[in-house]
Specification:
The protein is an alpha/beta fold. The chain is built from ten helices and eleven strands. Helix 4 links the parallel strand 3 and strand 4. The chain starts with a strand and ends in a 7-residue tail after the last helix.
Length: about 325
Amino acid sequence: MDKVSFLHPEFLLLLALLPIVGVWLYRSRKQQSVTLTLPTVSGLEGLVNWKVLLKPYLLVFRLVALALIIIGLARPRTVDVSNQTKTTRGIDIVMAVDLSSSMLAKDLEPNRMEALKKVADRFVDDRPNDRIGIVVYAGEAYTKVPVTTDKAIVKQMLQELNYDPTVDDGTGIGMGLATAVNRLKESKAKSRVIILLTDGINNAGFIEPETAADLAKEYGIKVYTIGLGSNGMAPFPVGYTPDGALVYRNMKVEIDEKLMKSIAKKTGGTYFRATSNSRLEAIYDEINQMETTEIEELRYYDYEEQFRPFALLALVLLVLEVGLRQTLYRSFI
């Protein structure tokens, strides 16, 4: 519903004077009236009709008209306010996700992959004004989604992430990071960020992680690194049963934290270790708070003047009051 405001609300103070004006008009009219004393009113009973009963309301017509004029002078108007936001300095973000078979390990609930997808989906929702892309890697790397403002497609592709047994298994951290850098190197955004997540050690690909980190630094791209996995042992997939079900075996969790810290430090980012679902959520929340986007809010006001109905009604009442006094009640004035 549109709000009502007044352009000149100070005029409304005049409404407080109306009772005084009413008393003054009433007394002045009464002084102008002629008093006739009769011994009996039995012969005038037929004269007490609707005209006599209506006469006191002429003063009310004038007072109401004055009130309407005052309200009209205050310029009532409805206002429709609409807000629009404009990104003044946006951020381009690429999430580089490890899709090796170890991401199916069950030290997070229900496994590392599903836990990541849930948290990353919420992270996308929290970045409505930024462009986001997805790079995936295992033994090789490729772009799943180029940086885009279409959050619906980003969220859809996130949900489709899974281990693909047809792709060379392994953890090519350097390949994943280099591919992510390639997606951002031409970006004109105020800030360019890579969130590099892995649950293992670099053991695949032909690009060394240190080389990819140097490229990120050269292009001014900040890299946040996340090591995903609990401490100690965890149930890892090691093969399939004859009917296609995954076989799990407890194995030691190995993450090259020294490498991940080095990449983050070299590019001005931060290294995080996610050992549980709640810690993974907290990490993405922390990154979300560290990388803020400057937003300009534009507010539009659409005013529609509403004084005309008040002015017209006041005119009608004044014309009616003056007309009645000059016609039906002329002899009483």
